[in-house]
């Protein structure tokens, strides 16, 4: 493959990406009609794009092809303005369509990351403070449960954020069934007294001063996930306070009812939340909203 032919294929491959980011090819003044619009400088072959967001160059030199980006305009950009975003080995003589496709995808990603509009991450909802809950002014909600849970398991912070971004609110059933319960179960299985006290101090506190919906998630969704292992449930008994009897009864119901377990393990599809009073955990067991 000739170098100019390779550049022509790259131009075609990244055309939509460059257009969507406001770039167009800058054609050198001495380019013949129909020729590939590249220039030569210090032994390098260069294809240049300009736009309102800056200047981008694709440069081939000594068996390597690179994408360089600058935020300055083409008529004022100097070499020091350009940052090398991506570089790949490129043997013109042996290159084929697969090599071109790789470069096109790689450079397209580089252009989007450098010049694409970046969405601002949504601000996470604020959990209820301990002082506010203890005063009786407000109750611990599901956001507080999720936030406090990922403080204990920081490796799940990203999944917690993604849950809120996806649904526009914290969908606790989805988070715990898919991520949180596995970590909870690991802790209970290890049965380390320090870790168990840390975990259950948090769960007991939020249960005691939580909304009905929050209590429901703790008892049914989280602790109810132990229905299939009496030994694991037994590990929890010494650490639970007021919710002990409810947890034991919940696990009995889940153990004998496959239809109830199905509702727990496969929560109904999410729908935008309507303003209504949260339901109790026993209602959740019976399939209530």
Spatial shape = elongated
Q: How many DSSP helices?
A: 13
Into which percent range does the helicity of residues fall? Answer: 40-55%
Average pLDDT over all residues = 87
Largest sheet: 6 strands, antiparallel
Number of strand elements: 6
Distance between the termini: 64 Å
Query: What structural class should be given to the helix and strand makeup?
Result: alpha+beta
Please indicate the percent range of residues in DSSP E strands (runs of 2 or more): 5-15%
Rg over C-alpha atoms, rounded to the nearest angstrom? 29 Å
Strand-and-helix sequence, N→C? HHEEEEEEHHHHHHHHHHH
Topology:
Layout: H1 3-13, H2 15-20, E1 23-25, E2 38-41, E3 44-51, E4 54-61, E5 64-70, E6 83-89, H3 97-115, H4 130-135, H5 142-152, H6 157-167, H7 172-190, H8 193-208, H9 212-222, H10 230-237, H11 244-256, H12 258-265, H13 281-285
Antiparallel strand pairs: 1-3, 2-3, 3-4, 4-5, 5-6
Helix pairs in contact: 1-3, 5-8
Account of the 3D structure:
The protein has 13 helices and six strands. The chain has helices spanning 3-13, 15-20, 97-115, 130-135, 142-152, 157-167, 172-190, 193-208, 212-222, 230-237, 244-256, 258-265, 281-285; strands at residues 23-25, 38-41, 44-51, 54-61, 64-70, 83-89. Strands 1, 2, 3, 4, 5 and 6 form a six-stranded antiparallel β-sheet that branches. The protein is of the alpha+beta class. The longest helix has 19 residues, at 97-115.
């Amino acid at each position: 493959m000739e170098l100019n032919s390779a550049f022509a294929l790259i131009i075609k491959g990244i055309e939509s990406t460059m257009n969507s980011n406001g770039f167009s090819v800058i054609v050198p003044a001495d380019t013949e009609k129909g020729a590939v619009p590249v220039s030569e400088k210090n032994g390098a072959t260069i294809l240049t794009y300009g736009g309102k967001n800056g200047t981008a160059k694709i440069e081939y030199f000594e068996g390597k092809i690179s994408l360089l980006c600058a935020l300055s305009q083409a008529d004022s950009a100097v070499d020091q303005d350009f940052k090398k975003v991506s570089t790949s080995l490129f043997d013109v003589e042996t290159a084929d369509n697969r090599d071109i496709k790789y470069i096109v995808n790689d450079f397209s990603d580089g252009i989007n990351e450098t010049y694409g509009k970046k969405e601002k991450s949504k601000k996470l909802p604020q959990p209820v403070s301990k002082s506010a809950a203890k005063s009786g002014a407000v109750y611990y909600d599901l956001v507080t449960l999720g936030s406090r849970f990922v403080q204990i398991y920081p490796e799940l912070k990203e999944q917690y954020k993604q849950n809120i971004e996806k649904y526009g609110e914290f969908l606790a059933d989805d988070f715990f069934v898919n991520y949180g319960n596995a970590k909870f179960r690991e802790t209970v299985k290890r049965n380390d007294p320090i870790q168990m006290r840390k975990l259950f101090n948090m769960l007991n506190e939020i249960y005691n001063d939580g909304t009905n919906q929050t209590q429901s998630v703790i008892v049914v969704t989280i602790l109810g996930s132990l229905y299939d292992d009496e030994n694991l449930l037994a590990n929890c008994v010494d650490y639970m306070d007021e919710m002990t009897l409810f947890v034991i009864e919940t696990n009995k119901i889940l153990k004998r009812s496959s239809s109830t377990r199905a509702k727990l393990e496969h929560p109904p599809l999410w729908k935008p939340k309507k303003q209504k009073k949260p339901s109790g955990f026993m209602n959740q067991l019976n399939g209530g909203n």
